[in-house]
Amino acid sequence: MLNMKITTLCFFVLCSASTSYSIIERDVIRHISSHQYSPDWKDLDTRPLPRWYDEAKIGIFLHWGVYSVPGFSSEWFWSNWKGGDKKIKDFMAKNYPPNFTYQDFAPMYKAEFFDPKEWATLFLKSGARYVVLTSKHHDGFTLFPSKRSFSWNAYEVGPKQDIVDQLSKAVREVGLKFGVYHSLYEWYNPIYAEDKKNNFSTRYYADTKLWPDLKQLINDYKPSVLWSDGDWEVYDTYWKSTDFLAWLYNESPVKDEIVVNDRWGIGIPCKHGDFYNCADRYNPGSLQNHKWENAFTVDKKSWGFRKTMSLNDTMSMRELLYEVVSTVSCGGNVLINVGPTQEGTIAPIFEERLLNLGNWLGVNGEAIYSTSPWLHQNDSFNSDVWYTCLKPTYNHRHPTAKPREHDAINAIFAIFLSWPINNQLEIMDITSYLHAGTYKIKLLGSNNVLNWKIKNGVTTIELPDKAKIQTGYAWALKISPK
What we know:
This protein has 482 residues and is α/β, with parallel strands linked by helices. 28% of the residues lie in helices and 17% in strands. The strands form 4 sheets. It has a 7-stranded parallel sheet. Strand 15 and strand 16 (458-462) form a beta hairpin. Helix 6 crosses helix 13 (348-364). It starts with a strand and ends with a strand. Residues 1-20 have low confidence and may be disordered. One of its GO terms (cellular component) is lysosome.
């Protein structure tokens, strides 16, 4: 084993795919299993992040439901319609008979071409490591046979299938983790409306609808991710969020593996949860002190499928890879949303983006999966360059932390989003480390060692001819000892 000191960092040549656990890590795992969490945020926040989530980096988000039938405006179709949106009102007047209701769309949501195995295969090829499905959006329609949502679920109306069950099995069969999105509130549930009328002094909805549905989801489908939403109208005390999470971490069948986000009531986002979303399409562009996730849409205008979507509305591969690379560099995961059609298909443009992502990760995944933030994130000289590093040990307590003085690291990766003129890449933040020893630089996907030189604090790396390179959107350099 090679042990070399680089300024204050050590490099070791180790297997990058190693998932062995150190004695410290095994102690942490035992802590997760044995510690009984109190129903208060201070104690809940001490729970170490399960390692799988930080290593996964890439997830797929699916917004699918009754709103996919009109496929117009967005997944907020019903709320915007009732709110008087003129475009939606004109759309309905032109295309549907008088007195047509949102509920009338449900029988048309047949999902006749839904093939969960085909979906799972696509997601596997995309390079994703987990999949999150909307088990219930704000309209209250569930994609599982909710025992508290009579005649307003996909098992009784429309597909006549338990969508959550079918997709969870297919996703797990190909080796991916499965998770569920679940909205806490429902726009027009009369029980929720009554609590709201009472200024949330009563908890009829939380006790008789929300809790039973959440526990059914956890017990029946055992998700690895619970992605909460719809929390913003009331404080977490109404939702009984801490009580639920204490049960989830202490007693549930997924207590050791599950991760949850931060949408559990007014004032909670970006403060509590296993990982933070903070806001839709959240990408701060800088290292965060807590594990976080950037959930974004390939269709820039909607989470649900839109029949009016144009090519210009979709994220280009360069834009998609910018989100992936910048997010992972700054300690986050990406959750890439595609909205399936009412028939149960994934639009070809979404499929193309996901397959291209998978091809890119097939070459450059070493610079993404299981990596950690490095001392620098975005190069101070070349803003097209982002850094990650690979460490042999996982920091359960602070997975987004920069390497400490005596941390060992296997390699540093410099990922660049634009191919430089004359095939010469100029970067600065790696220079002092290259000064300190003898290293090799390789372009992932190529076995050739690249030449480099330092002048005035800037490192110039001589790249091969771009025409000979496998990928065409973004590229990754691996810097390691010779």
